[in-house]
Write a structure and sequence with these properties.
heterodimer, A: about 300 residues, alpha/beta, TIM Barrel, Alpha-Beta Plaits, 2 domains, 9-stranded mixed beta sheet, two-stranded antiparallel ribbon, 11 helices, 13 strands, B: about 900 residues, Arc Repressor Mutant, subunit A, Anaerobic Ribonucleotide-triphosphate Reductase Large Chain, 6-stranded mixed beta sheet
């Protein structure tokens, strides 16, 4: 019997989640609630109904199968999320994909079949598969299972993680992963709790262990305007980075992005905008230079 | 500023200082900066840094250590060097070296053209692409002289071959040569208009003025107009039937009788197959028209005289004079001219044109000039349109090699000559295809220096220029990557890519010799031809497979035109109790349509053999001289007909919907479905569920992809059978040209959610907006088609964001292309999207599901972006396009 996991999406042909051409598997569920997250549909590990009212044509198919949670009028439609068990009947009948089910259980055979389809492309480009999320390492058993299969076939593997998981989970996948993208969000623990819901003690501990246990790690820092872009913040990052083992290959600064806005609507949550503008290349570059000087690791943006 | 750059390049190892440099060249600092930026598009500091790192990268590749290189280019610390390197190349120097070694991608070396555009070419480009009133730029000499020549011959009672030859000879005799300032390659310029050849002057003051500018003698013009005005039009109409150009017009429009027998014109069409050739220009280069004349005489002696040989002899004779006329014109200009710069050019023109095209070409310059003359003659015989040039890098390489070896020609001069030829070919609707790259019969790569140079010329000139690239798994990655860079830099979707590993087996499966198959090239858009050895009858027949579905649901009747019954009788709907039975009916309709179109082609072939001879094309096509039969009378070594298939992706999607909703879920009966389609989806929810709740072609989903593959396979089988029935060779070509618009308009609603009259999918690209699984999935779907059976090419356009084509991503795109080719991809064209599309995408998101845009460090589907971000990107795209 194959392992199964909650998967929110499998995206093929990505050029930006590691070297070469990659398939990205998004696992659902995360222990953090970063307020800027652009994948909010992966917060909860439970199945969820995503609802995009703009796509709705008011056909009433949903209210016909589930009058408890859906009401449809001439030109209006409402979806009552409370008490919804995400059984998916409404998504089944919705002709427009305004309603869709996110986070179905997928067994790893299916996931692997999807990954395998692009094997020629991985070989040609030194690409492979990237496990992302949410926090993919919350479902470490599944990741280990599939990463092991990929390795057997020579498909390179990468993980994108915030490391807010028990160390055992990381250990479980460690032998099968070629590249770790480890997120570092905020250096100050209290501030970390304020913006992500959790303090960063576990994360830092895991990062330290990982930097000793694995040799190919890229640390990623999302720069959120007004949250973690002050000199103090940078100094904090530098201090952490200096204390790490030899496995860190590079530090990557990510620009703030507002991509998730429409997704918050779709899961019935409120989106917070941190900045009206996106950093310019020059600003990012300046941060890069500062951080690099202080932490001694190559920084890119 | 050029001097400044030269200075910088010469002193790149020294510390360079802006103030000193500005002083040195007599600018103020501010002015210098502004000028510099204007000229190079970069600031001084960035330019110097970029150039230094470029050189540094080369040094590192050549084996120097990082430390050594860093200090050589003025970096005090390795850290600083690494960082700058990282910023430019996205990786550290040592990784760069490793990666380059691993993949053999020394791409930065070639990421930009090796040769700058010369002033001469800049000037010519402005002349050629200038914005003059287009009618001013018409050259009507060919129309007038050709018609006069043909009428004269027709009046004498000559045969159609002689009439065609007489028309062409008359143009050659009377045309007046024009040499533009700065030209190196001379000859007739085709103006910047879509169909100059279809322009017919009438007796108006404006056109008389135009004729005067064209230096057409008044008495000739009077005769031409008199002919036009002759009241005995009926009589002249009879003439016209014997004048091939007019014959085209006549044959293109179906007669009433034909209309009656075709009933539903929308399901099959028989198009004109002329002006789609690549003939043996190489032969003119090798023999010259004098040599060709000898050859014709030899065959005449052997086979006995005939009208075709007569016509050819006259043609060769007249063509011998072509160069001489230009030499004389140049001499006349020289006598007037006292500018030394011009003098040199004119002397060169005299030297070249007094030899070619009469004599064999000896030098590269002569070869290019001969090629252009030979091409002009071809376009004078019928239209310019899609008469194409073939594998230019292969044809010209021996001449280039010899000249360079002998020290007669520098590479820069060769590049300039290529640019001149490119400018000669320029038209704003250009399907004069040429091809670079490819594989040699021994499996090695045929890419040579000229292949690169032609890509460079395409990039540097940045004009519309129809160019394709042939590649196989054996082709240098570097070359394909360079071609993709050109796609990215030029943003016009050229070059296109053809996979030799699929094309060559496809051609040999149709009985084409292996050695000839290796020489294939393209005409016009994507039609396949063996240059100088075939008459490919491109775009001859066409069927609309969506009509097959319409007829299967209607027992042979048309839904769009209910009074018509053009299909086969496949039985009433209630007979189809299984999907397989229904599918069999659709296939039967497809075979029926193919039979109809092939029978038309057969009739047209008989007509064409009698009334549409092509002596010039015959002269340069293997088989015609030998057999004494015309190009259009099956004289060519390979004579085949390409039958186009429209709507394959839509039909596959439709059948998948029928299988899912009618036979699996049983939500509708076929009769109910027919009702829905006849009323063009009265319920939008039904239409959307058909779109969203069944698999669609283009997403790497086997169930529906296999239908598309099977449909093409069915058509191939049917065409094989019909080849026997009509004793003609038919090649399947799942290609729509732009008729997916017309055919779509003539087709009722289809179960794939397509509205009545809506445009159907282009060729085998997925229906617009129905692929959402990314580029690799799309390419996989297309690769599953039986591409080795369709030498007519399964054409696909892939729409990509221009920002995907950055120098960082190009190596990966190259990998994608090679991998897709390995999977069986036949042809792909990249359409980089412009702002207008994005604006439309914003208005009609449902049509653009697959459109992904690069937002900053990542890409995202356009539809998923919030409105202001969409606006942002639209704004940015516009900016990027300027």
């Amino acid at each position: 019997m194959s392992v199964s996991a909650k998967i929110s999406n499998i995206a093929r042909g990505s050029l930006h989640d590691g070297p070469g051409i990659r398939t990205v598997v998004y696992f659902k569920g995360c222990g953090l609630r970063c307020r800027w997250c652009h994948n909010p549909e992966t917060f909860s590990q439970k199945r969820e109904i995503l609802f995009s009212p703009t796509k709705c044509i008011f056909c009433g198919a949903c209210s016909a199968v589930c009058p408890e949670h859906h009401t449809a009028g001439e030109n209006a439609v409402t979806f009552l999320r409370d008490g919804c068990t995400a059984c998916g009947r409404c998504a089944d009948v919705c002709p427009t994909l305004a309603l869709s089910l996110c986070g179905e259980d997928m067994d790893m055979d299916t996931v692997f079949a999807a990954i395998e389809k692009d094997r020629t492309y991985y070989t040609a480009s030194h690409g492979g598969v990237t496990f992302s999320g949410g926090e993919c390492l919350l479902q470490a058993e599944a990741v280990a299972d599939i990463a092991c299969r990929c390795r057997t076939l020579g498909i390179s593997t990468a993980v994108e993680t915030a490391l807010f998981v028990p160390w055992e989970n990381i250990e479980q996948v460690l032998p099968y992963i070629d590249l770790f993208y480890a997120d570092l969000k905020i250096a100050n623990s209290e501030k970390h709790r304020q913006y992500t819901g959790q303090d960063n003690a576990l994360i830092l501990e895991n990062l330290r262990c990982l930097s000793l246990a694995h040799s190919n790690i890229i640390v990623r820092i999302p720069i959120i305007p007004g949250v973690n872009d002050t000199a103090d913040d940078l100094e904090g990052f530098a201090r952490i980075l200096r204390s790490l083992g030899p496995g860190i290959r590079q530090v990557e600064l990510l620009k703030y992005n507002i991509l998730g806005a429409s997704k918050y609507d779709a899961i019935g949550k409120t989106w917070v905008r941190f900045s009206d503008t996106i950093q310019s290349d020059e600003e990012m570059h300046a941060l890069c230079i500062t951080l690099e000087a202080r932490c001694g690791l190559p920084c890119i943006c | 500023m050029y001097e400044v750059l030269k200075y910088i390049h010469a002193h790149i190892g020294d510390p360079l200082n802006l103030t000193q440099l500005a002083d040195r060249f007599g600018y103020s600092k501010w002015h210098f900066c502004a000028k510099f930026h204007e000229y190079t598009g970069r600031s001084f500091v960035k330019y110097v840094r970029h150039y230094r790192l470029q050189l540094a990268a080369l040094d590192i590749l050549s084996g120097k250590t990082v430390t050594e290189t860093a200090s050589a280019y003025g970096y005090d610390t390795i850290g600083g060097f690494n960082k700058a390197f990282l910023a430019q190349y996205g990786c550290l120097p040592r990784e760069y070296k490793r990666h380059a070694k691993e993949t053999q991608l020394y791409y930065e070396r070639r990421a930009h053209s090796m040769y700058p555009l010369t002033d001469r070419c800049e000037l010519l480009k402005q002349l050629v692409t200038g914005t003059n009133d287009y009618e001013d730029r018409y050259c009507i000499q060919r129309q007038v002289y050709s018609a006069l020549g043909r009428i004269e011959a027709a009046e004498k009672g000559c045969s159609p071959t002689e009439i065609t030859a007489a028309g062409l000879c008359n143009v050659l005799e009377n045309f007046s040569p024009v040499i533009l300032p700065g030209e190196l390659i001379v000859g007739f310029n085709h103006p910047d208009t879509k169909y100059p050849e279809r322009f017919t002057p009438t007796d108006t003051p404006e056109h008389r003025e135009l004729a005067k500018r064209n230096r057409i003698p008044e008495e000739m013009l009077d005769r031409y107009f008199a002919f036009q005005k002759d009241p005995a039009l009926e009589l002249h109409f009879e003439y016209r039937k014997h004048i091939p150009d007019y014959a085209h017009a006549v044959s293109a429009a179906p007669t009433q009788q034909e209309l009656d027998s075709t009933e539903d014109q929308s399901s099959i069409a028989r198009n004109i197959d002329s002006n789609h050739t690549v003939i043996g220009y190489e032969k003119v280069l090798k023999l010259g028209f004098r040599g060709l004349l000898e050859e014709v005489r030899a065959y005449e002696e052997k086979n006995g005289p005939c009208a075709m040989y007569d016509g050819m002899k006259k043609l060769c004779d007249a063509a011998c004079q072509m160069g001489k006329k230009y030499a004389a014109e140049a001499q006349a200009l020289l006598d007037l001219e006292d500018d030394a710069y011009q003098t040199e050019d004119l002397e060169k023109i005299i030297e070249v044109c007094s030899r070619v095209p009469e004599q064999p070409a000896k030098t590269f310059h002569e070869a290019v000039q001969t090629l252009w003359f030979a091409h002009i003659l071809n376009t004078w015989e019928d239209f310019i349109n899609a008469n194409s040039l073939g594998r230019l890098d292969q044809i010209l390489y021996p001449y280039y090699q010899r000249d360079v070896a002998a020290g007669r020609l520098t590479k820069e001069e060769a590049f300039e000559l290529i640019c001149c030829l490119w400018l000669k070919l320029y038209r704003n609707y250009d399907v004069q295809q040429s091809c670079v790259g490819g594989t040699a019969p021994d499996g090695s790569s045929a890419v040579n220096e000229l292949s690169y140079m032609m890509l460079d010329a395409t990039e540097q000139l940045n004009i519309i220029r129809c160019l394709s690239v042939r590649f196989s798994q054996n082709t240098e990655k570097d070359f394909v990557q360079r071609a993709l860079e050109v796609v990215g830099h030029v943003q016009k979707g050229v070059p296109f890519f053809f996979n030799d590993d699929v094309m060559i087996p496809a051609l040999t499966s149709k009985g084409i010799d292996m050695a000839d198959a290796y020489d294939y090239t393209q005409i016009g858009c994507v039609e396949t031809v063996i240059p100088g050895r075939s008459n490919p009858h491109a775009v001859t027949g066409e069927i609309n497979v969506l009509k097959a579905l319409e007829y299967a649901m209607n027992n042979g009747g048309s839904m769009m035109y209910p009074h018509l019954h053009p299909g086969a009788e496949t039985g009433p709907l209630d007979h189809f109790d299984t999907y397989e039975k229904f599918y069999a009916a659709v296939k039967k309709q497809i075979c029926h349509l193919l039979d109809l179109t092939c029978s038309k082609v057969k009739k047209y072939r008989e007509y064409s053999a009698l009334y549409n001879p092509k002596p010039y094309k015959s002269l340069l096509t293997e088989g015609c001289l030998e057999s004494g039969r015309d190009f259009n009378d099956a004289g060519a070594k390979y004579d085949y007909y390409q039958i186009m298939l429209d709507g394959i992706p839509n039909l596959a999607d439709s059948l998948e919907v029928i299988r899912e909703f009618v036979y699996r879920q049983k939500k509708f009966t076929l009769t109910e479905l027919k009702d829905i389609l006849e009323h063009d989806y009265p319920n939008e929810a039904v239409r959307l569920s058909f779109i969203n709740k069944a698999a669609k072609f283009g997403n790497d989903i086997d169930s529906v992809d296999s239908i598309a593959a099977d449909l093409i396979g069915t058509a191939c089988d049917a065409l094989d059978a019909l080849s026997g029935k009509y004793e003609l060779s038919f090649h399947a070509q799942p290609f729509t040209y732009w008729w997916m618009v017309d055919r779509g308009q003539q087709t009722a609603a289809t179960p794939d959610g397509r509205h009545r009259g809506e445009i159907m999918a282009y060729s085998v690209s997925p229906m617009q907006g129905r692929d959402f699984n990314g580029l690799t999935a799309l390419l996989n779907s297309i690769s599953k088609l039986p591409t080795t059976r369709t030498p007519g090419t399964t054409s696909a356009i892939v729409e990509v964001d221009p920002k995907l084509f950055t120098d960082r991503n190009i190596p990966m795109l190259t990998d994608i292309l090679f991998a897709a080719a390995k999977n069986g991809l036949e042809n792909v064209q990249f359409n980089t999207i412009d702002a207008d599309t994005l604006i439309d995408a914003k208005k009609h998101p449902e049509k653009y599901n697959n459109l992904a845009v690069r937002v900053s460090g990542f890409s995202q589907k356009f539809n998923l972006l919030s409105e202001d971000l969409q606006d942002h990107i639209i704004g940015r795209t516009k900016h990027a396009c300027l």
